[in-house]
Amino acid sequence: MEVVIVPDAAAGxxxxxxxxxxxxxxxxxxxxxxATGSTPLPVYRALAARVASGAVDASRARICQLDEYVxxxxxxxxxxxxxxxxxxxxxxxxxxxxxxxxxxxxxxxxAACRAYDAALTAAGGVDLQLLxxxxxxxxxxxxxxxxxxxxxxxxxxxxxTRLDNAxxxxxxxxxxxxxxxxxxxxxxxxxxxxxxxxxxxxKAEAVAQTVEGPLAAVVPASALQLHPHATVVVDEAAASKxxxxxxFRHTYAEKPSWQGI
Length: 261
Known about the structure:
Elements: E1 2-6, H1 9-26, E2 31-34, H2 41-53, E3 62-65, E4 67-69, H3 80-92, E5 99-100, H4 109-122, E6 128-131, E7 153-156, H5 159-165, E8 179-182, H6 185-189, E9 193-198, H7 204-212, E10 230-235, H8 245-254
Parallel strand pairs: 1-10, 2-3, 2-6, 3-5, 6-9, 9-10
Antiparallel strand pairs: 4-8, 7-8
Helix pairs in contact: 1-2, 2-3
Site (Part of the allosteric site): 146, 153, 155-156
Enzyme class: hydrolase
Active site: 67, 136, 138, 143
């Protein structure tokens, strides 16, 4: 996989925004897979700035979700659907009709998971999937020991995850759903290009295991090693435990625009 070490989160955001801008120039109707959380926000801000300046036209792009809470009422402000409308679609000038996501309020959740996988395939597949990584190496809500061939499915949130997410629900853990729908690792690997962004020292061990460790279900993100076009963008703090960090820095220095991502 490609590994790009950048000075900080803002630089990572600019780099990935540039890659997305290049994709949209080649394929204006590209299907972009997006993630929630704080890590990808620099990407969305950098891309929105390019749209606002007229440098990028994202209006024909299509957006799809990585995961969604189960059981929140339609329109709940903390559903990932609503969050992505605020953080991605509205700033980029993309109509909600171009947004694809799993139905977290479906009566038959298993059927909704299968339907979402089928919809992604029918749409021609994801062109670029943006990912974050957990401190334990999880991607999406695929926790350690998830099957590397898993498809979109329902998962139970750990107590720690619910505690971590309580801040978005008025610090009331009782308001945090117990379940989510997540793209499986196999579904994620179907995307044509995977771009993982990791920042901060807390992600350093997970990044090292993902990039330099063995392929193992205990580190779900290590499945990116199987992908023909996976790019890992990390700041200096997140790269601090990479044994081959100097090699990655040298490679990036020779290709500063990093057109390859």
